[in-house]
Amino acid sequence: MSTKDIQQLIDFISQSGLDEVNIETTDLKISVKRYGQGAPIAPVAPAAPVVAVPAVAAPVASTPTAAAAPAVSAPKADTSNYITIKSPMIGTFYRSANPESPMFVEVGDSVTEGKVVCIIEAMKLFNEIESEVSGRIVKILVENATPVEYDQPLFLVEPI
After folding, report:
1. For the segment 20-40, what is each residue's pLDDT rounded down to a tens digit?
2. Lipoyl-binding domain: which residues (predicted)?
3. Nearest to 30, CA basis, from 2, 57, 58
């Protein structure tokens, strides 16, 4: 089962309303559990190679503050001409190959189509994420070494 198949399975489960799904084949055993507050998944007993898949939780509403509301709505009008590079999978976002390496991109850097902009670790696999557009990095929307969701915006790019 490929990472893309697992992502599609997670998306299906999140839309179906099921709280728990277990799938077992001769090569693989997957257990997906969803909790309202995003609690971690219980480990699966290994029978074969084990794949732990993060649960897709419903968004948790945060308490809005008067100061935060205007700051969030103002940049949205400015970003209409920018292209968003989004996460193609669930995983952990890394801006460099390792802690000693320089960041792949910084704000203001020019990127071309196919240039690696970050790495997303999913199930102990490190996936290089390449830019699909040419332009200049305007904003980095995710902190280094933080979890990201499927289709979550990672970078804003001003097209050239």
Report:
1. 777 777 777 777 766 554 445
2. 82-158
3. 2
**How would you classify the pairing of strands 50-52 and 29-33?**
parallel
Domain ranges of the chain: 3-52, 80-159
Contact in structure between 3 and 123 (CB atoms under 8 Å): yes
- Rounded to whole angstroms, the maximal C-alpha distance in the chain is 55
CATH of domain 80-159: 2.40.50.100
Distance of alpha carbon 134 from alpha carbon 83, whole angstroms: 10
Give φ, ψ of 69 to 5 degrees: -60, -50
> What pLDDT, in 10s, does the model give residues 104-135?
999 999 999 999 999 999 999 999 999 999 99
